[in-house]
Amino acid sequence: MNDSYQIPSVDLIVEEEIKHSRFISFIFHCQSVEQLKCVLTNVRAEYPGANHYCYAFVCSEPGNSVDIGSSDDGEPAGSAGRPMLATLQGANIGEIGAIVVRYFGGTKLGVGGLVRAYSSGIKQGLTQLETELKQVRYPGLLRCEYGQLQDVEFLLKKYDGVISDRNFSDTVTVSFELPRRYQQELNIDLATISQGKLIADFEL
Question: What is the torsional sign of CA 50, 15, 7, 123?
Answer without folding.
Answer: positive
